[in-house]
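Example S7 (structure tokens).
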């Protein structure tokens, strides 16, 4: 746990959500589709890219609850979006590149916000569906 109460996993999930949402936004804009946020499978893919592992259901649920409760993410069913306060945090962070983005973001979180506790639950069925979707993407080479 950091000095301000944020865990490393919170920063990992936050950075993953930022990456996933930006990729989804770019994909939607190029295809002239509405921007709807990143799916949980998108967040899992970004988390795996950053840390070479997929967060467990409990890790993902706890971090999303803390981040959403602090007003940094919004979550609706299985769609995650970076809230305006999260955008501000991301844009004002010291630039460090992706290799150290999680550590940099954990420092920023501890300086800027207090973890919250949003009323959001990630059930096993939804989590397993997101893992399955991500696994199928890997198998397809996407």
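Recovered sequence:
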């Amino acid at each position: 746990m950091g000095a301000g109460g944020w865990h490393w996993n919170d920063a990992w999930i936050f950075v993953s959500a930022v990456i996933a949402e930006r990729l989804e936004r770019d994909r939607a804009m190029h295809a002239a589709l509405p921007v709807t946020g990143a799916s949980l499978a998108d967040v899992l893919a970004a988390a795996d890219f950053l840390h070479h592992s997929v967060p467990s259901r409990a890790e993902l649920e706890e971090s999303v609850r803390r981040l959403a409760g602090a007003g940094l993410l919004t979550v609706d069913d299985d769609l995650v979006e970076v809230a305006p306060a999260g955008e501000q945090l991301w844009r004002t962070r010291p630039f460090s590149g992706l290799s150290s983005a999680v550590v940099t973001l954990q420092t920023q979180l501890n300086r800027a916000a207090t973890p919250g506790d949003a009323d959001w639950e990630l059930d096993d069925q939804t989590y397993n569906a997101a893992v399955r979707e991500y696994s199928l993407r890997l198998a397809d080479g996407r």
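Notes on this example. The chain has six helices and three strands.
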